[in-house]
Each structure stands twice: as C-alpha cells, then as structure tokens.
Design brief:
This protein is an alpha+beta fold. It contains five helices and seven strands. The termini are far apart. The structure holds zinc ion.
Length: 159
C-alpha cells in the first residue's frame, strides 16, 4: 500500500508542474526540469512586466513631452529687462542685443549659436530645453531662461 501511496503523494506535491512518476523517481533530473520550467515562467512574467512598464513609460513620456513642451518658452533678458519670449516649439533664429548674440531655437531647445563676447561661454553652453535652465552671456548681460507657460503665470502673481 505504502509503495503506491508514496508516488501518489509526491505527484500531489508536484501537481502544479504535472511531473510524471518516472521523473520523480529520478530525483535530480526532475528537479532540473522543474527549475527550467520555473525559469521559463519567470522569464515570461518579466517580459510581461517589462511590456507593461514600457507601455506606461511611453504614454507618460508622450504626455510629459506634449504637456511640458507645450508652453515652454525661451525668455530673453537683457540688462535685467525682459526682451522677448520665444516658443520652443517653433524653430527660429533671433538676433539679440542689436546683433551681438544669435539665439537659435531648434528641436525644442535653445542655444546661443553665435556671440561676439570675448569669453564665448554662452556659445559653448549646451542647448537648454528644461524649465529653469539658462544660458548667460555676462559681457552682454544677456540671460536666456527656459520657462514653462504655467510657472511664468505663477511668477507674475508673486511679483
Ligand atoms: Zn557670451
């Protein structure tokens, strides 16, 4: 009786993986197969989770991109005075300060393409696109700052 019961019990324990008595009797071989199956299941789960995360990230990224760049502007200050606001969505070239500096907006970011200042720090500065980033040309007292439309409104209320 016991001989018949034992494999039955073992099969019970391994019923999730539906392993036959033959595999159970071989011991280690069975464990190998079990592990392989488990790994395969986990791989499938990981791929599924990654796909879900990717979908979520893509939709969030698209939302952030459209919401973020929608009102973003390059705001130019010369001698502390606001000179102009230029949307990052529109490709354009702006001559600043009577032509001493040339600001270029391209691919959703702003950069100082040319300047006649001696240090050329503003020209070497990488393109800016995120809220709060700025390019400063000290010799000409020019500041280009990225501002989000919404936050600019809040600033106006504070002032
Ligand atoms: Zn400069």
């Amino acid at each position: 009786m016991l001989r018949f019961l034992r494999p039955a019990r073992k099969r019970d324990a391994g019923r999730v993986l539906a392993v036959s008595n033959i595999w159970l009797r071989q011991g280690s071989g069975c464990a190998k197969i079990d592990r392989k199956k488990e790994v395969r299941m986990k791989k499938g789960d990981i791929i599924l989770i990654l796909l879900i995360l990717l979908a979520a990230a893509t939709s969030f990224g698209a939302y952030a991109f459209f919401a973020g760049s929608g009102g973003a502007e390059a705001v130019v200050y010369i001698d502390g005075e606001e000179e102009g606001r230029y949307s990052l969505k529109k490709e354009q070239t702006i001559e600043l300060n009577g032509g001493t500096n040339t600001l270029v907006i391209r691919d959703g970011s702003a950069s100082m393409e040319r300047a006649d200042c001696p240090d050329q720090i503003c020209v070497r500065h990488r393109a800016i696109s995120k809220n709060g980033e700025s390019i400063i040309c000290l010799p000409h007292e020019i500041v280009v700052t990225i501002e989000d439309g919404k936050e600019a409104e809040t600033d106006a209320v504070v002032q």
